[in-house]
Design goal:
The protein is mainly α and about 180 residues long. About 70% of the residues lie in helices and about 0% in strands. It has eleven helices and no strands. Keywords: Membrane, Transmembrane, Transmembrane helix.
Length: about 180
């Protein structure tokens, strides 16, 4: 949420889509190509990809991902907080979302815990995509956080690089 372009990109895809189906969010970013690569990285986990997280838990995890991304540079400023609240309002979960945001703010930044109950490649991609879209990677702490999140989600480095490039291209293409 660090910049105007990040906020515009999130607004372009719509808060509702972000919080109730991240797959729709990143559909324009060659989703299937990424899913296949992540599935291959989890081939030693027989249940991976065959289960899905309940929608409520998935929405909670996406809110947590937004907050963690925003505070990955060490703090959440007023504009980042306002952007998170705007996304929750657009998703129609403002009241419930505020509670989740407060809980997330008070938790230690822990990408391993965020990734712990991811059950398939689509969920892994939506977490990484949303985290990348929410920030501009202009601080070493943000880069470190995304590296740790990508590692925890077992997303191959070349896939991460492509996601980040795609998001940067989308941000540059946004008006204003």
């Amino acid at each position: 949420m660090a910049s105007k372009s990040s906020r515009k990109l999130l607004a372009k895809y719509g808060g509702g889509a972000l919080l109730v189906g991240g797959g729709a969010v990143a559909g324009t970013v060659l989703w299937n190509k990424y899913k296949d690569r992540i599935r291959a990285a989890h081939q030693d986990e027989p249940q991976y990809g065959q289960q899905h997280t309940p929608l409520d838990r998935r929405a909670e995890r996406l809110v947590l991902a937004l907050v963690f991304a925003a505070k990955s540079d060490g703090h959440i400023d007023d504009s980042e907080r306002a952007a998170i609240e705007r996304q929750l309002r657009e998703a129609g979960i403002e009241a419930q979302g505020r509670v989740l945001v407060e809980q997330a703010i008070n938790q230690p930044l822990d990408p391993m815990r965020l990734a712990a109950d991811v059950k398939n490649e689509e969920e892994a991609l939506e977490l990484y995509f949303l985290s990348c879209a929410a920030i501009d990677i202009d601080h070493f702490m943000e880069r470190s956080y995304l590296q740790a999140l990508g590692d925890a989600l077992k997303i191959p480095q070349d896939v991460r690089d492509e996601i980040e490039r795609d998001i940067q291209q989308e941000k540059k293409a946004l008006p204003g």
